[in-house]
Amino acid sequence: MESTVKAVNGCIFEIMDYRSDGFSEYWIEDKDGVDFEVLKNIPESTTRWINIDGGCPQSTLECLSKTFRIHPLVTEDIANNVQRAKIEDYDDYLYIVSKMIYYMEDELIIEHISFILGWNYVISFGELKGDVFTSIRDRIRNQNTLIRKSGADYLMYSLLDAIVDGYFEVLEVLGERIDKVEEDVLQVSSTETLHEIREVKNSLMYIHKYIWPLREVTSWMGKDSTELIRPATELYIRDVYDHIIQIIDTTETYRELLAGLIDLNLSSVSFRLNEVMKVLTIISTLFIPLTFIAGVYGMNFRYMPEIDWKYGYYATWVIMVVIAVSMIIFFKKKKWF
Amino acid sequence: MESTVKAVNGCIFEIMDYRSDGFSEYWIEDKDGVDFEVLKNIPESTTRWINIDGGCPQSTLECLSKTFRIHPLVTEDIANNVQRAKIEDYDDYLYIVSKMIYYMEDELIIEHISFILGWNYVISFGELKGDVFTSIRDRIRNQNTLIRKSGADYLMYSLLDAIVDGYFEVLEVLGERIDKVEEDVLQVSSTETLHEIREVKNSLMYIHKYIWPLREVTSWMGKDSTELIRPATELYIRDVYDHIIQIIDTTETYRELLAGLIDLNLSSVSFRLNEVMKVLTIISTLFIPLTFIAGVYGMNFRYMPEIDWKYGYYATWVIMVVIAVSMIIFFKKKKWF
Amino acid sequence: MESTVKAVNGCIFEIMDYRSDGFSEYWIEDKDGVDFEVLKNIPESTTRWINIDGGCPQSTLECLSKTFRIHPLVTEDIANNVQRAKIEDYDDYLYIVSKMIYYMEDELIIEHISFILGWNYVISFGELKGDVFTSIRDRIRNQNTLIRKSGADYLMYSLLDAIVDGYFEVLEVLGERIDKVEEDVLQVSSTETLHEIREVKNSLMYIHKYIWPLREVTSWMGKDSTELIRPATELYIRDVYDHIIQIIDTTETYRELLAGLIDLNLSSVSFRLNEVMKVLTIISTLFIPLTFIAGVYGMNFRYMPEIDWKYGYYATWVIMVVIAVSMIIFFKKKKWF
Amino acid sequence: MESTVKAVNGCIFEIMDYRSDGFSEYWIEDKDGVDFEVLKNIPESTTRWINIDGGCPQSTLECLSKTFRIHPLVTEDIANNVQRAKIEDYDDYLYIVSKMIYYMEDELIIEHISFILGWNYVISFGELKGDVFTSIRDRIRNQNTLIRKSGADYLMYSLLDAIVDGYFEVLEVLGERIDKVEEDVLQVSSTETLHEIREVKNSLMYIHKYIWPLREVTSWMGKDSTELIRPATELYIRDVYDHIIQIIDTTETYRELLAGLIDLNLSSVSFRLNEVMKVLTIISTLFIPLTFIAGVYGMNFRYMPEIDWKYGYYATWVIMVVIAVSMIIFFKKKKWF
Amino acid sequence: MESTVKAVNGCIFEIMDYRSDGFSEYWIEDKDGVDFEVLKNIPESTTRWINIDGGCPQSTLECLSKTFRIHPLVTEDIANNVQRAKIEDYDDYLYIVSKMIYYMEDELIIEHISFILGWNYVISFGELKGDVFTSIRDRIRNQNTLIRKSGADYLMYSLLDAIVDGYFEVLEVLGERIDKVEEDVLQVSSTETLHEIREVKNSLMYIHKYIWPLREVTSWMGKDSTELIRPATELYIRDVYDHIIQIIDTTETYRELLAGLIDLNLSSVSFRLNEVMKVLTIISTLFIPLTFIAGVYGMNFRYMPEIDWKYGYYATWVIMVVIAVSMIIFFKKKKWF
After folding, report:
1. Is the pLDDT of residue E5 over 70?
2. What residue ranges are annotated as transmembrane (chains A, B, C, D, E) (predicted)?
3. Given A235, C66, C222, C238, which is the most exposed site by the fewest CB atoms within 10 A?
């Protein structure tokens, strides 16, 4: 069973304690009556990661906040999922907010996630039950990984890196959809193409909106602004910053490509329609003068010399063919079809 | 009776005095001959909130200004409702201007509001008779709220927070209207859709216009710029600042969504119209050659061999059907309908 | 007679000397042979305002410049009316350039105006004979106004304030024109609407262009940059700065509104035209199959059984009515009209 | 003969030496074997202007560079005419690059020009044989001009000023072309109008592109950045800077005007076309029902009561006229034409 | 055989050692078991350039990194080809990333390239087997070139300069394609023109995207930020910076030109189509009233006086010609064709 999709009705605390020579992993359910002091009590030279998925009741949140001496405004913000990515420095801990984007069962999930980074612990608050941190759990379980040898700040970096990698994966899927749209536009463009373009465009808009403030967050973290992040880790944070810049770059490129495709789609739809209308109009225009001629000799005047002429009928046909052919030649010469 | 919609012809001063262990609430009417010195005379460790709704005569304003030693330029500005949000620091007091947005009886009200924040008082000047401060009054009336334990700066924060929350509520309504417009555009788009889009677009424009300068105001207030705001309150002000950034973000997202809907509306209107015109033109084009043939055999030439031929009429029908069917097949093959 | 529209062929110097307890007002004509030294000779604790309207000959300008020790580049600039708003600090005096906008006889006048602000004098050089300073003259003539108690810097503020107020008045007129255009667009939009939109749009463009650099000018003046402007006056200058920001804001709002109206106009013109074309095409399409049927029975084939049938004519009418009605029902069902 | 259009195959050095009490003017041809040391040898209190038009061979350029101790990179840059305007400070001399724009025989010439400004000399390298410096030569030849009393820095200012004045002249011509285009758009707009708009638009784009970096160049020169330019001259340089800002302003205004004209052109072309199509369609629509009626009574049914009725023909005419008139009234009422 | 297209399956190290009085050039294949210590061991006053084309296995990269004491993050980045241009300062060496653009066999190649610049060595990691460095190799092989007399920093400059020159060459090709597109648009514009415009537009977008961050890289390198680059070389780096600014300028000019061409293409396509439709509609409109008249006299009423009139037929012809001619005159007068 995959640990990341566990059902957490009663708000489960997923806890991983690790140091270079060992690790332990256990779950505490909220309804058991959590002893928050135990949570706070972290053994020496150990890093603790407390992960809380799927939201938890306000009361639990407040107890936890009191235990870790977290400001009431932060507690309020954790429960508020319209927050944009930001970082706040409360000396003893950092409060970091971000959006996590990933695909679950072919659906794009946008999840609000908050972190508290202390000296030897990280608390992560997820909105839903899934996340993108499976590989981090695996690396903690392995003896010789860098994460086991590093502290809470490196864990924080790993979490942010996993989130940013999630954006890359979503962008890859969008890139493929743009390629497909491009093919469609050039061959058969229908209203579905339009809707697909619109969906991809909106997804890109949201990705851009969510990644943009993360830029400032990582820029701040990589700039020696706090003692909670060691200089050695700052180098890694700057790498995350570079990745974010690449994501912003790519979304902008994709948006330009899409804008081009929207224009191309409009032109090619209208081009094709105009071609149809032109051909139809040419057909009508060809027959209208001929119908007129037929109409003339359908008149019932008593004195119409052509009517009685023996070859009148054939001559009329000849005239009509001549007119039709001249018109076709004229249209061809004018390159009208 | 709701206190916020009281009729204030003679300019009523709504006064709330409170400290942690008590509060009093009373109204002074302008026509009574207000003793302004009493207004200024605030008991020790008490915070006074003077709220003046619905505009008041210039003379009263000037008396008030003299009592509280407010600069004549400020007095002038209070009466001028085209001001944009701003803050001015006069050492002894701050002058803050903002726009308040709320719905009253399904109509969007944009109200100009000014504040004077002194050491132990806040004076608020509303343009109309309604406001968004009911919850603040309730919190003052309750014993154990944070507002009762805090000073004038926290009251100022609460007022700004209530104003910004008003923006969120209006945005929520606009968000629902955008959702409805989207449905309309995809199903039946008429001129009403166009007008609805335009109205929402203009509302967003105004919200953006009014909230934008408030950003600078709260940024200044949260940055240790004045002693009138205590550091503990600055943290709360910065929270308001974050909310304002979120509102700006949301208006921008909504505007992008609307721009997409306007384009989609245009395309889908023109797409549907073009389909109609194409079908109509195809019908005409089908019958014009047939009418020509009928015209030919309606000619009265004496010598027309087909006329006398026994199966001429049936043959003509056959030819016409063949022509019509070939055209239909041709159009189908070309995917013209 | 209004003093501001006096004919000034020979370049009249309009001079107002004032101090808190008196004022004098007189005119010197250029052709009299101006004694420039007298101009320079200002009595103690008196402020002198020299106003020169309608341009004056280069030679007079040069004499004046020499008297007041003005740099030749400034003298050159005064005569050059393509200058944008700017301020130049020459220690002993400030050189300020601006555009004045007002309506005279329903026509929008854009006038170039320059100022020299010295310690106890202001010289203003207008391009045309009208100006927006009438109210300032009245305030100087009255004993108890603030302007009489203040110095040259406050006069300078009053002149700039009057100029900026002129922009507000023009914007108000434009606002009314936009309201009228909006009504026109929704009811009857013609080419005149298009021209009206274009005119308002260009006016807004010019206002924006002229007011924009004035922002920097007043910002500089309000920032303690020069001793020529006292701190007390700087407060007033900052008020002018706020007004300028409001004007810029309003022009931007108006431009967005206009852009919306242009789009709406285009859509509603094309919508109405398309409706007309659709109805016309539907009428044609209804009759073309009927005409074909009539054509068929107009053919002269000898052997046409229907022709000799007694009820053929009536049957044909029935068929034609059935076809027409089915088509109408079909079109109605498809919501084509 | 005009000195500025002299043929310079062999690369002619046009030299002007001047001081307040005299000047000399002579030409050295490259093929004579130039003694570069003489060029460098400038008499005391004399300013030398060496002008080299129409490009000169790389070898000459290198000799010159060695004589005046110019950095090889500069020598390379002088020969490279895709450079944008810039200034480089090499302590002993400044290297300034610009674009010169002027009309020669109704054709817009864009010429690359470089300057070396030393303590007592200016070297100018023109790409072509014409320039905009005639008035400067005249002022050097006159005894009492400011240029004769000033040094190399003032000469440099004069050269830049002449270049910037050239931009103004070109803008004036473009302004007139825009006025003409506006008239055309409102009266008869054809494809030529479109091409004219495009040409003016591209010219404005190039002017904007070339003048923009010159802004930074003059801003740097006017800011006390180098001892090669005296404070007194800096004032003049700042005047050139102001002119450049005006040119940028004007190009932006022109571009906005043109954008408006492009939209107006599109609308008025499509408006006129639509009017034509509507009238044509109305004519067709009027006659199609009438033709149908004529068709009905052209049928050859044996039993058609109306046919034998004495007034059938006249009645039919009456019906047809009634139908036509009702349709016209209907169309008029709907304001379709 | 051209050295730059050598097949490098086993990852070949192409090494050039040079000093002012000699140079050596040799290749080491990875499979030989590279002695990395030898690579690091650079003779005194010698500059070593190690070029690795076509990617190399991760293990080799790691050995190399250990030898030259390169940070693991850099080693990771070298293998990651979605990096944008950047520079990182690791005190002992600089890590520089860029994109190289060139044409190989008429195809546009975008190659990711990384550099390590140490005190006396440069290591370059190319993604593919081709590069733009042939001229640099030639200059190293020649005795008297500046590169032979300079150190690793000048080599680094030469490499960047060659990359930037590659952009110029690609831009030149794109410039020619834009010229061709312009001709096409004015003469025959088809869907191919549209695709060509789109391709050029996308190429420009990518060039802009890749060159933009290189601006910051060279700006940093030219600003005395590191001791690894000598002041004399900084001057050359700043020259590269100027070239990059020119490339950005040119791409922006090209993009504006293309935007103009896209609009022109749309207008001219729609203009031509509209002309066709108008002519076709005019032809139809001319014949429809005439057909109606013919229809009238094709009716079979027994009592039609005109039918029996001797000149009825000719009179009808006259009427029809008069109608046709009046319509043509009317259309001509209205300038409809």
Report:
1. no
2. 279-299, 311-331
3. C66
The residue among C283, C296, C316 with the most chain B CBs within 10 A of its CB, best to mutate, is C296
Tens digit of each residue's pLDDT (9 = 90 or more) over E76-127: 888 877 778 999 998 899 999 999 998 887 788 888 899 999 999 999 998 8
Length of chain A: 337
CA distance E299 to D297: 5
Instruction: Provide the chain A residues 104-143 that lie in CB contact (below 8 A) with chain E.
Output: none
Tokens of E190: 């088809």
A284-293, D127-136, E5-14: which has the highest mean pLDDT?
Answer: A284-293
Q: What is the pTM of this model?
A: 0.80
Cβ pair E322, A324 in contact under 8 A: no
Question: How does DSSP classify residue C30?
Answer: G
Task: Provide the token pair at B243.
Answer: 């909310």
Total Cβ atoms within 10 A of residue E72: 12
* Angstrom distance (rounded) from CA D265 to CA D271: 10
Phi, psi for D46 (deg, rounded to 5): -115, 145
Q: In what order do the strands lie in the sheet with D107-117?
A: D22-29, D12-19, D47-52, D121-126, D107-117, D94-104, D86-89
Nearest partner of B173 among B254, B244, B248, B246, judged by Cα: B254
C192 touches chain B (CB under 8 A): no
Q: Do C84 and D246 contact (CB within 8 A), yes or no? A: yes
Q: What is the DSSP letter of E199?
A: H
Alpha carbon distance B225, C187 (integer Å): 53
Would you call D293 helix, strand, or coil by DSSP? helix
End-to-end CA distance of chain C: 66
Task: Please report residues of C whose CB lies closer than 8 A to that of B71.
Answer: 235
State the pairing for strand pair B94-104/D94-104: unpaired
A332 vs E: CB within 8 A: no
Distance between CA atoms of A94 and A88, rounded to whole angstroms?
A: 6
- Cβ distance E278 to D281 less than 8 Å, yes or no, reads no
Residue in chain C lying closest to D274 (CA): C273
What six digits make up the tokens of C244? 């300028």
Asked if B85 and B217 count as a contact pair (C-beta separation under 8 A), the reply is yes
D290 close to E292: Cβ distance less than 8 angstroms: yes
CA distance A190 to chain E (A): 18
pLDDT at A7 > cutoff 70: no
The DSSP H or E segment spanning B99 is strand B94-104
CB B139 within 8 A of CB B49: no
With cut-offs at 50, 70 and 90, classify the pLDDT of residue D4. Answer: very low
Burial of A322 per CB tally in 10 Å (0-12, 13-18, 19+): exposed
Burial of B31 (0-12, 13-18, 19+ CB in 10 A): exposed
Domains with residue ranges and CATH for chain B: 12-267 (3.30.460.20), 272-333 (1.20.58.340)
Look at strands A12-19 and A22-29 and give their pairing: antiparallel
Q: Does any CB of chain D come closer than 8 Å to the CB of residue C103? A: no
Residue A329 touches chain E, beta carbons under 8 Å: no
Widest pairwise Cα distance in chain D: 122
Which A residues, 269 through 298, put their C-beta within 8 Å of a C-beta on chain B? 269, 273, 276-277, 280-281, 283-284, 287-288, 290-291, 294-295, 297-298
Rg (CA), chain D: 35
| Structure confidence at residue D72 (pLDDT) | 87
**Using a CB-CB distance cutoff of 8 angstroms, which residues of chain D are in contact with residue C216?**
none
Can you give the pLDDT at residue B123?
94
What is the average per-residue pLDDT within A166-195? 86
Q: Measure the CA–CA gap between C143 and C149, rounded to whole angstroms.
A: 9
Instruction: Decide if pLDDT at D9 tops 60.
Output: no
pLDDT tens profile E249-296: 999 999 989 988 888 887 777 777 788 888 888 988 899 999 999 998
The number of helices, as runs of H, and strands, as runs of E, in chain B is: 10, 7
